[in-house]
């Protein structure tokens, strides 16, 4: 296979997977603590809007990232207030968060920028660009420079942070005392309370970490992948991340593999546009709609096949009532 094509597929896979990884790791943290988080999509959308609006007005990448993380953390705390403090239905709270984000970002965008819900374009020098600019394009005839250089070294900071977060979340959950406590809250909160620790406090800590990662995922969409915010630009990525987390059985490394699979399928789908069907199948181009839907269709198929074998944390979705 041509080295340029291989390099392009690898680079596209990593770029598409980055926001999914960040969002999926956020879901792993909250759900291992016993809090169902269907609001990943809404938090990403809030963060994407906050990053784009702040960066376009202040002309600062740092402030855009900070705003995205702050807004996503606030949304996580709101979710926690509803379902941890007041023991509300966690599924309903997450769905409500998604609906609020979808509507409020458009309303604020129209009110502030009068561009149909979009934000002004972010200046090129404010956006996150490749750290190694020399590998921004594949180099025909140079296999190593194309595949390794463009495939793995042509990305911005958040792509590498996304993969580092997988290792960090794994180490935190498996090798640190706070991580073991967080896992215990998702399995047996009564035991955690008996040991003198606050179940609510630990779940709020998990939700704050969840908010930070969702903020980074949302900011990636507007500061790195696109040049501005547009309504509903997350396009179901939060739900894909949720599916990847379940497919990965709430474990960081298998979840990363699921995100990479979706990223690979999306990269292949992009390159299938314009491909001609064989004459035996009627000829003509492959429908664009089918190509765009393929990664989502396969995700649903995989989820349907594996969700029965995935064992969730025992206390997931169960509000904790302190025993007297």
Outline the structure in words.
The chain is mostly helical. The protein has a domain at 3-128 and 143-234. The protein is 69% helix and 0% strand. It is built from 12 helices and no strands. Helix 6 packs across helix 7 (177-187). The protein is globular. The model has no long low-confidence stretch (mean pLDDT 87).
What tags apply to this protein structure?
324 residues, mainly alpha, single chain
Order of helices and strands: HHHHHHHHHHHH
Q: What is the number of E strands?
A: 0
Q: Which residues form runs of ≥5 with pLDDT under 50?
A: none
Q: Portion of residues in helices?
A: 55-70%
**Helix-and-strand structural type:** mainly alpha
């Amino acid at each position: 296979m041509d080295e340029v094509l291989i390099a392009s597929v690898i680079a596209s896979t990593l770029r598409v997977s980055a926001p999914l990884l960040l969002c999926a790791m956020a879901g792993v943290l909250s759900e291992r603590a016993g809090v169902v988080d269907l609001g990943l999509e809404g938090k990403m959308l809030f963060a994407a809007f906050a990053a784009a609006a702040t960066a376009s007005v202040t002309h600062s990448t740092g402030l855009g990232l900070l705003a995205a993380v702050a807004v996503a953390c606030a949304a996580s705390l709101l979710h926690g207030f509803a379902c941890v403090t007041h023991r509300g239905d966690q599924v309903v709270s997450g769905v409500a968060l998604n609906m609020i984000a979808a509507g409020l970002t458009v309303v604020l965008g129209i009110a502030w920028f009068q561009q149909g819900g979009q934000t002004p374009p972010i200046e090129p020098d404010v956006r996150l660009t490749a750290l190694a600019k020399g590998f921004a394009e594949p180099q025909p005839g140079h296999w190593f420079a194309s595949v390794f250089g463009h495939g793995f070294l042509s990305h911005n900071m958040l792509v590498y942070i996304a993969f580092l977060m997988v290792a960090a979340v794994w180490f935190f959950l498996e090798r640190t005392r706070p991580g073991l406590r967080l896992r215990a809250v998702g399995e047996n909160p009564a035991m955690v309370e008996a040991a003198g620790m606050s179940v609510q406090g630990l779940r709020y800590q998990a939700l704050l970490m969840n908010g930070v990662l969702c903020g980074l995922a949302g900011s990636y969409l507007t500061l790195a992948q696109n040049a501005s915010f547009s309504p509903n630009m997350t396009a179901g990525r939060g739900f894909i991340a949720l599916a990847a987390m379940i497919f990965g059985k709430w474990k960081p490394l298998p979840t990363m593999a699921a995100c990479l699979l979706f990223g690979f399928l999306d990269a292949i789908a992009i390159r299938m546009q314009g491909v001609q069907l064989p004459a035996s199948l009627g000829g003509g181009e492959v429908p664009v709609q089918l190509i765009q839907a393929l990664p989502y269709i396969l995700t649903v198929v995989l989820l349907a096949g594996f969700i029965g074998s995935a064992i969730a944390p025992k206390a997931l979705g169960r509000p904790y009532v302190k025993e007297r």
